[in-house]
Amino acid sequence: MFVSCCGLKCLSINTLLHLLMTVWLMCYKDIPLHYYSSGIRWKSSYKQAPLLTAAPTRALVDEQISIKGRFLASHCPVTVCAQMHSEDGDLWEAFAHYYAKADGTVNLTRDHSVGGSYLGCEPMGLFWGLQPAPGSREGLRLRKKNVETPFVVQVSLLEGHVSPSERQSAELAAVTTERSYMAPGVQRIDIRQDGVVATLFLPPGPGPFPAVLDLWGLIGGLTEYRSGLFASRGYASLSLAYLGHQDLPGPPNHINVGESYFKAAFNLLKSHPQVCGDRVGIVGFSYGGYLSLRIATQTDVNPTCLVCINCPIGSTIKFSNPDGRTERLESDMKYWSYSDESHVIFRDISLPANLYPETKVKVELLSCPLMYIVGEDDLSTSSLENANLIEETLRAAGKSQLLTCLSYPGAGHLIEPPYTPNSRESLWRNKPKKLLSLWGGHLAPHAAAQEDAWKKILDFMESNLRQ
User: Fold this and answer.
1) How big, in percent rounded to 5, are the helix, strand and coil portions of the chain?
2) Is 85 one of the catalytic residues?
3) Most exposed residue of 175, 177, 255, 375, measured as fewest CB within 10 angstroms of its CB?
């Protein structure tokens, strides 16, 4: 049997079906196919549009994601860029230049950036490389305020090697990613009890859970994002305010709570029905690290372990009474130094010889494991000198086995959860005059330090709080 179809020669049914099947297959290939039959040449004009994928598109901030571009011209230059707005509305961006492989793909876990915000193979460079866009306000630092919402990052694939702020190139493809501090099921609970001002984060499930008291530095208020992430990793975490919060005794530029306050916070966490009371540690950053050491050695709190990040062993601020309250926050200005841009460098204030003697922690009294983390480019705290003194003191006391010290070349003061963009400097105060503080840290080595330190912190907590 023969039929006539679309003005073609009369073909057999089998031949016609074979040709139609070939056309159908060609429409789902990214490379045009040629087919010759009965003297007729068939060619598909269909070309797959470039595609950009991120897997997973929703993840915790400490998780890597895989970013890939496909269906590009072989060896063509492209730019992959990330842009996001902070909660204050400021635009942050990072970008990197790549060449597509022969098969038309770009894979950030495999390929090397040849220019832009970072160089080399850096799977998460678009995230830790985020910096304020050109023309932004001076002295910005990216910090999450509302931990119940994610950061939303737009990742784009641009034609050629360009800067995203120039926007002289066509956008080939884009994908939206979400970066969260709280895993599904994590509970956030406001705490205002026994004078304690804090936020408690509980992992999913009934517990009981090992726990950590989470202390930040002199920036004040309630900083919750690290605690949300700890809870996402299975630890109950209490983020504690001790300065500059409306629910604390005033004035806001003084520390108006003492040892009894920190003891009450620790015991509140320890006695919570969903907490393992004998498995509670303390994590402290900067001045919060000093408080962690002080709490562990001067009260009957007895934490299971300590993690201290870039902290001194004594106070850089004069006490108004022996239990740790202060008259003011500013340290002795005779130890301040300045960069060529007139940014203040606080590093020398915390040299062990410059600390107020009456505030120094008796490290030899420590009875629990301590992980001390050093950023060797820290321009805010003399953390390396303090680490050396801690090591010498514990060795003399026969307690060297308690100390694990991690030291990172090129890392600055602000060692935070992985893939957090580093701010080498940021606004410290506006009054009586605008002042920017230098924190230190170079982008790539600082990012590597944050990633490695976070893994080792979790391993340290796993060993001491779960086993």
Assistant:
1) 25, 30, 50
2) no
3) 175
Task: Please write down the HEC assignment for all residues of 219-245.
Answer: CCCCCCHHHHHHHHCCCEEEEECCCCC
The pLDDT value given to residue 46:
58
Active-site hit among 163, 227, 232, 286: 286
The two three-digit tokens of residue 87, written as one number = 């909660």
pLDDT beneath 70: ranges in the chain:
1-46, 167-168, 330-331
b/e map 409-439, b = 16+ CB within 10 Å: ebbbbbbbbbbbbbbbbbebeeeeeebbbbb
Half-sphere exposure of 454 (CA within 13 A, CB side): 21
Residues 70, 76: Cα–Cα separation, whole Å: 12
Are 96 and 115 in contact by the 8 Å Cβ rule? The answer is yes
Q: Look at residue 25 in the predicted model and tell me its pLDDT.
A: 43
Q: Which of 86, 378, 380, 423 is catalytic?
A: 378
The pLDDT score that the predictor gives to residue 33 is 37
What was the pLDDT predicted at 169?
73
Q: Which residue has the tokens 């023969």?
A: 2
Q: Residue 138 has what pLDDT? A: 92
Tell me, rounded to whole angstroms, the distance of Cα 62 from its chain centroid: 7
> pLDDT value at position 379?
97
Residue 399: Cβ-neighbour burial (10 angstroms; 0-12, 13-18, 19+): middle
Q: Tell me, what's the pLDDT at 10? A: 39
CB-facing half-sphere around the CA of 176: CA atoms within 13 A: 5
First to last CA, the chain: 80
pLDDT of residue 44: 43
pLDDT at 32: 43
Both structure tokens of 369: 């494991």
Annotation marks residue 378 as catalytic: yes
Selected catalytic residue, list 413, 423, 437, 446: 413
* Residue 213: both structure tokens together: 């008291």
